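tl;dr need the bound structure. longer version: we got a ligand (magnesium ion) that a collaborator sent over and nobodys looked at where it sits. i said id run it. heres the input, straight from their email, havent touched it
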Amino acid sequence: MYKNPSFRTPFDFIMEKTSDNQTERTPLLLITAAIEQGGRTMASLLRKGPLLGITGSAQIRNVQGEGVQTLDQIGQETFLGLFRRSRAVLSVLSEEAEMPEVLPCDEKTSLLVAMDPLDGSSNISVNAPIGSIFSIFRPPAPSSSSPEGLFLNASSPLLSAYLLYSVSTSLVLAFSGETRVFTLDPDTGEFLGDGSPWRFPDKGKIYSTNEAYLPRWEKPLQDYLSWIKKERNPSMILRYIGALVGDFHRNLLKGGIYLYPAEAGEKTSGKLRLLYEACPMAHIARNAGGIATDGKQDILTIVPRSVHQRVPLIVGSVDLVREFQERTGHPL
Ligand code: AHM
Ligand code: MG
């Protein structure tokens, strides 16, 4: 039996936090239910992975020139279908589609969804953690601008979420000043959590970054990493899963900092996309007492110029991110 007889669900969380916001309550409940259903579907497929022949490449490239995996396509179809059926989503922007897709909905109460349906694609074929990431925005007023304009003019996220498919399936939701962590019971299909807000631990000692790229980083970042490894006291430890959701989740639970900075050469704006990777993680971090920057400014203050815009991302425990900013010459 469960260790806690009074676990709470995402439904309870949204109900509790929208007691004075009846207008957005229904779309938020419908969208959260769609994310939960998508999580159940994906987790169930992933349990059989290679047996279903879904862990390989789709042999095509997406609009951003990246190789598409079969599970990228399955994630895209699964979540897009669920958001379409919810009739609470005005438009979906996805890593897997060039343009946002406008959906049938009740326009008065509908919201925008930006998503990375399958985060950490390179982990799929080796049975390592992967995830799905979502940010939910209010449409700008007036909401009659172009499909891209809706996302470029939206304010910072109203709600953010990620699913982490690993030893168990986690759902992390950030809304209205709180971040909560839920775990899927695969027998009942319920996501359950203890009903209390999650905060980044005060003291963290993990750094997560792909150190192989260090020669292409700017000098202040190289110096920072060298200081982390040789001089910082107390010393830090490296953990890198290679899926943003997995690395962020570890740091959220244990305390730490994740870095995907800009590089000389091909990745002058980093790798991660603002609207559906950096922004939701920044929002989840903020609601858990953490912080996210692009190295110079708070991620949540960046106004997007294009829907698939990339940004450097440094996110994690507030003390570690502040320390990073101070040592690289841009104190917060
Ligand atoms: P993806 O959306 O194609 O999976 O790319 C994003 C992923 C992140 O999850 C992860 O943090 C990063 O790419 C890893 O990149 P790298 O292999 O360059 O370290
Ligand atoms: Mg992705």
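gonna send this back to them w/ a short note. The chain has eight helices and 15 strands.
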